Automatic annotation (TrEMBL):
GO molecular function, one term: metal ion binding
Name used for this protein in its record: dolichyl-phosphooligosaccharide-protein glycotransferase
Principal subcellular localization: membrane
Family the UniProt entry places it in: Belongs to the STT3 family.
């Protein structure tokens, strides 16, 4: 029977497999989520940043091919500078123009398909890189793994996650591929910078072309995001390591000079032609600092070349010693001569690889923990470690600059990911590549033995020499049988190496386990992606805001110049937590005071300071300074996210100011920690607005706590010795009585059990909470978060919108009240205690056409005095009596 020569069809098989692998992310990250996310109104995009990207695309399509470096529709009252590049947005806007997508739903659908398409493009790029590093078999394994790898990489390439992250991974991997190719070509060029005879066009042509293409690849990454500078840092680290290796092996490093000079020479030209939209030298922005950095990289390569050339033939330790001296001298000179640049570099390194308390509140900026790593890559970590060892072994046998570069690339990206989990989507390429290197090496090593084990040729293997029935026994002297030594040697030579067979099977199983588990996770992610979009209550609230609040007078689609733009008199800001800024811009077409770039969050006028302020006077000063008219609150910032603004407002204290934690004994010598709300929490603006509608609220039930100090109890937290629910009056008396005669280290206080343990505690302050005088509820969403409590349970809505108003003044003493009915039919009484003989009230009893209405006049409790307040009185801040 004729055998099929598969080698003849190998190119077609490879192309077919690559196409098949590329279809996998299109299905799991494209078609699966799209089936549940596309509606006639568009797409419920994932999380928050994608909403802003699509806002940029809408703007770019309307002004094609323009790109806005300044956006007046966010960060009121200054507007915000766009600090990432136009490439990703322009790719999408070009596709929209080509396919005729002009409406919001059409633009959203086109935009949503770009991330999974880029994930599909990663398949052939990864194949080519792995093939360049090893062989075609390794390439196919790497292509298959990158198609199914999970975690942040898969999530950020989902349909609906329209952000530049997947483009960062794609373009940086293309640069790695191009740089590796340039290294191979230049090293094989056999030229010398000190020999004119070798510096000919035919010798330099291909090295220069491939290096120039690597420079173009770098520019693609740069036009997408300035953080591609990280890969210039990788090149710096690699160049240093490779110069050392070349020096110790007595090899010239001329090829490194050519590659780096051409790559970053092209980068300098491209960056200079692109321009510098941002001032200064900040390398995380589009500044002239990039030109300086690339020039320093080229100069540094020349210095290394000069040192290695000068010291060639001398003791090997001379070169590293000289490098250390030069580095120390350079740092010292920079510190003395250019302290600003020195401080910029040091602060950039510390901020990049370090961690501050506030970064723990940003999901993508927190540290990468072991659990995160194993959950994402699991068995891929084991395979990748094997791949790193394999590359080290290959380098030990024969130094290959491409292998060295891959290891340095992996080390830097690993360190970046460990510092900030966001870089996990970069690290996916390293995991896929190194896993494939290890699997491919084991496959190549054990393939022949596996074939011998599973497909032995007839007559190759026998249990004992001479047992083969197909050949007569050889005869020795006197007719006796002689051992067939020829057959014995052949049999031993063709017997499989069982250790290699075992290794092959083990690695194949682990690789399939890694791929299969990752693929299942991809499918699950695609099927549940719809739940990561904006919640229905926020969608409802912002649609209402778009239709029922004044137009701020800024053209949503226009491109403005930062230096000449001024806001119109009709403009205003919307205060909320930064998570929701892009939703406010995109869905309400209103201008948030802060945004998910964490701009407008910190400082005296930041949203963090506002939300946790316990003084209305201080909170009002913030809103006056930044021109806020509306405040949007939600149950998450009131509860689960509250720690975030508390941490941003005061990183050193954080949530401890508003939440007290104690140990409760559960058995002899064993304790369980329990958090409690203290009065400071109930006095914050977020609590006073969201929980109490800005109305004065008296305590009802409180938690009476007796406890011992941590020092007295010899524990890390105070220890509760008595815990009892009381009404507020009894509790206050009990605290006073206990503390009057308490022993040293023992105390009593009033708190309330944390909302996670007792949900209604959100509505139960420890002491009286004063009314807010300048805030009125104008809209709330229908969902009651206590709906499970039944008809008689509390009624607290998920999202609320308040208007900040001057308020009308009423002279009087005591407590003034007015009944209010909200747009959902919920009824409450707004109550306020007079201050210095005056009430400042926010609700109009006439002349107001809003959804939230008063159902009677203001009345001073216990009297017959009533007052009618018009909307004009509220807006003009009039005194009406």
């Amino acid at each position: 029977m004729a055998r099929i020569d598969l080698n003849k069809y190998r190119p077609y098989i490879i192309v077919g497999l690559i196409v098949l692998f590329a279809l996998l992310p299109l299905w799991t990250r494209g078609f699966l989520p799209a089936a549940d996310m596309v509606t006639p109104e568009g797409v419920n995009l994932l999380e928050n940043d994608p909403w802003y990207t699509v806002r940029q695309v809408e703007q770019a399509v309307a002004n094609f091919p323009g790109y806005a470096w300044f956006d007046a529709m966010t960060l009121y009252p200054t507007g915000d500078v766009v600090y990432w590049g136009p490439l990703f947005v322009q790719i999408i806007s070009t596709l929209c123009v080509l396919v005729g997508a002009t409406t919001r739903p059409e633009i959203m659908v086109v935009a949503c398909w770009v991330p999974p398409l880029m994930a599909a493009a990663m398949v052939p790029v990864t194949y080519l890189l792995a093939k360049k590093i090893a062989d075609w078999k390794t390439g196919l394994i790497a292509a298959g793994l990158i198609a199914v790898i999970g975690g942040n990489y898969a999530y950020r390439s989902l349909f609906g996650f329209v952000d530049h992250h997947i483009a960062e991974t794609l373009f940086s991997t293309i640069f790695v591929l191009a740089y590796v190719a340039a290294l191979y070509t230049a090293r094989e060029g056999r030229f010398s910078l000190t020999s004119r005879e070798t510096l000919k066009i035919e010798t330099l042509k291909m090295p220069v072309i491939t290096a120039a293409l690597a420079g173009v690849a770098y520019l693609l990454g740069y036009f997408n995001m300035p953080t591609i500078i990280l890969f210039a840092l990788i090149v710096v680290a690699f160049t240093l390591v490779q110069f050392l290796l070349d020096f110790f092996q007595d090899r010239k490093s001329d090829y490194l000079v050519l590659v780096n000079a051409v790559v970053f020479g092209v980068a300098i030209i491209g960056v200079a032609a692109f321009g510098f939209p941002h001032p200064g030298l900040d390398l995380s922005r589009y500044t002239v600092g990039h030109v300086v950095a690339y020039a320093v990289l080229i100069a540094g390569t020349l210095v290394l070349y000069g040192l290695s050339t000068y010291l060639r033939g001398r003791p090997k330790y001379y070169f590293p010693a000289a490098l250390a001296l030069v580095a120390a001298a350079a740092v010292a000179a920079l510190y003395v001569a250019l302290p600003d640049i020195y401080n910029l570099l040091i602060s950039s390194l510390l901020s990049f690889f370090g961690e501050q308390p506030v970064t723990t509140t940003v999901g993508e900026a927190r540290a990468w923990l072991y659990d995160d790593a194993w959950k994402t890559f699991h068995w891929g970590l084991v395979l990748a470690a094997g791949g790193a060892v394999t590359l080290l072994w290959w380098i030990w046998q024969k130094v290959n600059p491409a292998h060295v570069f891959v290891l340095v690339w992996t080390a830097v990206i690993f360190a970046s990911t460990a510092a900030h989990v966001r870089y996990e989507y970069y690290f996916a390429a390293n995991i896929a590549l190194l896993s494939a290197v290890f699997a491919g090496a084991v496959l190549n090593m054990g393939w022949k033995d596996v074939k011998r084990f599973f497909l032995p040729k007839r007559g190759e293997i026998s249990s004992e020499p001479g047992e083969n029935q197909g050949e007569p026994a050889r005869k020795g002297k006197k007719g006796s049988r002689a051992p067939d030594t020829r057959k014995s040697k052949t049999s031993s030579r063709n017997r499989p190496d069982y250790l290699k067979v075992g290794a092959f099977i083990a690695v194949a199983v682990v690789t399939l386990l890694f791929a299969g588990t990752s693929f299942q996770a991809n499918i699950a992610m695609g099927n549940t992606a719809q739940y990561a979009g904006i919640d229905s209550q926020w969608m409802e609230a912002l649609k209402w805001m778009n239709a029922n609040t004044p137009d701020p007078g800024v053209d949503y689609y226009a491109i403005y110049d930062k230096d000449t733009f001024t806001y119109p008199e009709t403009s205003y800001g919307v205060m909320s937590w930064w998570d929701y800024g892009h939703w406010i811009t995109f869905l309400a077409k209103r201008i948030p005071n802060n945004n998910p770039f964490q701009h407008g969050v910190t400082g005296a006028n930041g949203s963090a300071a506002y939300l946790v302020s316990t003084s209305e006077e201080d909170a009002n000063r913030i809103l006056d300074n930044i021109g806020t008219r509306y405040v949007v609150t939600d149950i998450l910032v009131d509860t689960a996210k509250f720690w975030a603004p508390a941490t941003w407002a005061d990183p050193d204290v954080g949530i401890e100011r508003f939440q007290t934690e104690f140990f409760i004994p559960v058995s002899a010598g064993n304790y369980q920690s329990m958090p409690f709300h203290n009065q400071e929490y109930y006095l914050t603006m977020i609590s006073r607005l969201h929980n109490f509608d800005g109305s004065m609220t008296d305590p009802s039930q409180v938690t009476y706590v007796e406890y011992r100090d941590a020092d007295a109890a010899n524990t890390s937290l105070p220890v509760i010795t008595r815990l009892q629910q009381m009404n507020a009056t009894e509790g206050a008396a009990a605290v006073e009585a206990y503390n009057r005669n308490a022993s040293v280290g023992s105390h009593a206080t009033l708190l309330n059990i944390h909302y996670q343990l007792q949900g209604a505690s959100l509505l139960q302050p420890v002491e009286r909470v004063p009314a807010l005088q300048h805030y009125r509820l104008v809209h709330e969403t229908p969902q009651n978060i206590y709906s499970n409590a039944g008809a008689n349970g509390p009624d607290l809505k998920a999202v609320k919108i308040f208007e900040y108003v001057p308020g009308a003044r009423i002279k009087g003493e005591g407590i003034i009240e007015v009944p209010v009915t909200t747009n959902t039919g919920r009824e409450f009484t707004y109550r306020q205690e007079s201050v210095n003989g005056t009430f400042i009230v926010p609700y109009a009893t006439s002349g107001w056409s809003g959804e939230v209405k008063t159902t009677g006049p203001y009345r001073i409790a216990g009297t017959d005095q009533t007052f009618d307040v018009t909307e004009e009185d509220i807006q003009q801040g009039r005194t009406i009596n």
